[in-house]
Specification:
The chain is α+β, with helices and mostly antiparallel strands. The protein folds into four domains: 92 residues, no CATH class; 89 residues, Beta-Lactamase (2-Layer Sandwich); 72 residues, Helix Hairpins; 165 residues, Histidine kinase-like ATPase, C-terminal domain (Heat Shock Protein 90, 2-Layer Sandwich), CATH 3.30.565.10. Helix content is 51%, strand content 18%. The protein has 13 helices and twelve strands. Strands 2-1-5-4-3 form a five-stranded antiparallel β-sheet, sandwiched between helices. A five-stranded mixed β-sheet has the order 7-9-10-12-11, covered by helices on one side. It has a two-stranded antiparallel sheet with strand order 6-8. A hairpin with a 7-residue loop joins β3 and β4. α8 runs antiparallel to α9 and α11 runs antiparallel to α13. The protein is elongated, with a radius of gyration of 41 Å. The N and C termini lie far apart (100 Å). It binds adenosine-5'-diphosphate.
C-alpha cells in the first residue's frame, strides 16, 4: 500500500486530536481527549470496513465500490480492478464456449461430451440425429443405457483415440455409424460419431462391380484360352514364331485367369468379415498342407527344399477355400520369392493358447518399409519380379481377409536379402475337438 494512501487520513486524525485536546485540556485530562479522538477514528474505520465488506459480498460486477477515504479506499479500488478483470475473463471464456458449441452444432458429425461416470453432459444436433439422443432431456443419463449395442460398454471402458466402434442403427435408416473416443480433463470423454453409410454403400457397389466383372470376364477368357489350345494343335508347330506367339498367348490367358480367380475370391471375402458357418468343415490340415507342398515343389521343378512340421492330430474348422487360400498363397510366395536351392519351412502347431501356421523362407526378403503395405491390393515390392513369377498382387490381400473371417492375425518378419517369416495365429476355438466329427479328406 502506498504511503500517500496511508497518509490520506492524517488530516482527519489531526482534526480529531485537536478536537479531543480541546475537550481534554479544559477537563484537565489530556489523555481522555486523545483516547476520545482515537475512539472516534476507530469507529469511522469500522463503519468504512462494514461498507466495504457489504460491497464485496455483493457479487454484481457493475456496482461501484462505496465512497471511502483512507487506506480502505485503495483496497476497494484494487478489489474492483481485479473483479473487472475476472469478469472480462469469464465473459471471454463464455464467448469461446458459445462459439465452440455453435461450430459443433453446425457439424454434420455427432459430438457427445461425457463426464467421468460416462453420463451425457452435452451433445450436438448431429449426435441427436444420428444416435437418436434427446437434449437436454438425456443430460445426466448414462450413455450405455441409451446406446445398447453389443461391445459398446467395453469400448467405453477401454476405448481411446486409436480405437473405433462400428455399428448399424437398428431402425428404418439402417445407418452404419463409427464412434471414436477421446479422453480429456480429469476423466471426461468426448465421442465423435461419423455416418459411414454412404461410404459403405460405395464400397458394396465397388465390391459387387469387381465381383460381377470378374465373373463375366471368365467365360470369354475360357473360350479364348480354348481357341489358343486348338490353334496350337492345328498350326505348324515347327514355326518358332507361331510357337512363341501361341505360348505367349497361353501364358497371358493363364495369368488373366488367375487374376480373375483371385479378384472373385477377394470380393467374396471382402463382402463380410464374418465367416459363413454353413461352408465350414473339419479339415485335416496336415493332408491339405502336404498336397500344397507337392504342388509348390512341382511349380519350382523341385529345386527348393520344403519341410513340413505339422501336428497330424489337429483338425481345423474353416471354409476349405479360405484356409487353403491362406496356406497356398504363403507357401507359393515363399517359393516365388526365393532362389533355386532355397529352403522353406512350413509348420502348423499348437502355440501358447493359439494355433500357429508359419512359413519361413531364406529368399529375397522384404525391406521393412514395405511390410505395413503388403496386404494392400496390387501392392508389390518389385512389380516386374512379381509379374515374371506369375503373381497377381492379390495373394496377401486374400490372406488378410480370409484371416479376419477366421479370427486370425498375421505377423511378418523379414530382412532384405536374408529371408521372411509369415506367422498366422488362429484362436484355439477353431480346432475341432469332437473326434466323432469326420475329417474331410483332401482331394
Ligand atoms: P504377388 O502375387 O505379387 O506375389 P502378394 O499379395 O502375394 O502378391 O504379395 C505382395 C508382395 O509381397 C509381392 O509382390 C512381394 O513383393 C512381397 N512378398 C510376398 N511374400 C514374400 C516373400 N515370402 N518373400 C519376399 N517377398 C514377398
Amino acid at each position: 500500500m502506498a504511503l500517500e494512501e496511508l497518509s490520506s487520513d492524517v488530516p482527519l486524525l489531526l482534526l480529531l486530536l485537536i478536537a479531543g485536546a480541546s475537550i481534554g485540556f479544559p477537563l484537565g485530562n489530556a489523555w481522555f481527549g486523545v483516547s476520545l479522538a482515537f475512539g472516534i477514528y476507530l469507529y469511522i474505520c469500522a463503519r468504512r470496513l462494514r461498507l466495504l465488506m457489504r460491497w464485496i459480498a455483493d457479487e454484481s460486477p457493475y456496482l461501484d465500490p462505496p465512497l471511502l477515504r483512507g487506506p480502505l479506499a485503495a483496497v476497494a479500488w484494487r478489489v474492483k480492478t481485479s473483479r473487472n478483470r475476472l469478469h472480462a475473463d469469464i465473459e471471454e471464456r463464455d464467448g469461446r464456449v458459445a462459439l465452440l458449441r455453435e461450430s459443433f452444432s453446425a457439424l454434420k458429425d455427432g459430438i457427445v461430451i461425457l463426464d467421468a461416470s460416462r453420463a451425457i453432459e452435452w451433445c450436438n444436433p448431429g449426435a441427436r440425429r444420428l444416435l437418436g439422443l434427446r437434449y437436454p432431456e438425456d443430460k445426466g443419463q448414462h450413455i450405455g443405457n441409451l446406446l445398447r449395442y453389443p461391445g459398446f460398454q467395453e469400448f467405453l471402458a477401454t476405448g481411446d483415440s486409436e480405437s473405433e466402434f462400428e455399428f448399424t442403427v437398428p431402425d428404418a435408416r439402417a445407418l452404419t455409424l463409427q464412434v471414436q473416443a477421446a479422453r480429456f480433463g480429469e476423466a471426461s470423454m468426448v465421442l465423435f460419431v461419423r455416418d459411414l453409410s454412404a461410404l459403405k454403400r460405395l464400397e458394396t457397389i465397388r465390391q459387387d462391380f469387381v465381383g460381377n466383372i470378374s465373373h463375366e470376364l471368365r467365360t470369354p477368357l475360357t473360350v479364348i484360352a480354348g481357341y489358343v489350345d486348338t490353334l496350337a494343335d492345328l498350326l505348324d508347330s515347327d514355326s518358332p514364331v507361331i510357337a512363341k506367339v501361341l505360348s505367349h498367348m497361353r501364358q497371358q490367358s493363364v495369368r488373366m485367369e488367375n487374376l480373375l480367380k483371385d479378384l472373385l475370391l477377394l470380393s467374396q471375402l471382402e463382402n463380410s468379415d464374418e465367416p459363413d458357418s454353413s461352408s465350414e468343415e473339419a479339415i485335416s490340415v496336415c493332408a491339405m498342407l502336404e498336397s500344397i507342398r507337392e504342388n509348390a515343389l512341382a511349380a519350382c521343378s523341385g529345386d527348393r527344399t520344403i519341410t513340413l512340421d505339422c501336428d497330424s492330430s489337429l483338425r481345423f474348422r474353416a471354409s476349405r477355400v479360405e484356409i487353403e487360400s491362406i496356406f497356398s498363397n504363403l507357401i507359393f510366395n515363399a517359393v516365388k520369392y526365393s532362389q533355386s536351392g532355397g529352403s522353406i519351412d512350413v509348420s502348423f502347431r499348437l502355440g501358447d493358447g493359439v494355433v500357429v501356421f508359419k512359413v519361413v523362407d531364406d529368399g529375397i526378403g522384404i525391406d521393412p518399409v514395405h511390410i505395413p503395405r503388403l496386404t494392400e491390393r496390387f501392392y508389390r515390392v518389385e512389380k516386374s519380379r512379381s509379374a515374371e513369377r506369375g503373381g497377381t498382387g492379390l495373394g496377401l490381400a486374400i490372406v488378410k481377409h480370409a484371416l479376419i473371417r477366421l479370427g486370425g492375425e498375421m505377423e511378418v518378419e523379414s530382412r532384405h536379402g536374408v529371408g521372411s517369416t509369415f506367422r498366422c495365429v488362429f484362436p484355439l476355438d477353431r480346432l475341432v475337438e469332437d473326434p466323432a466329427l469326420p475329417a474331410v479328406a483332401v482331394g
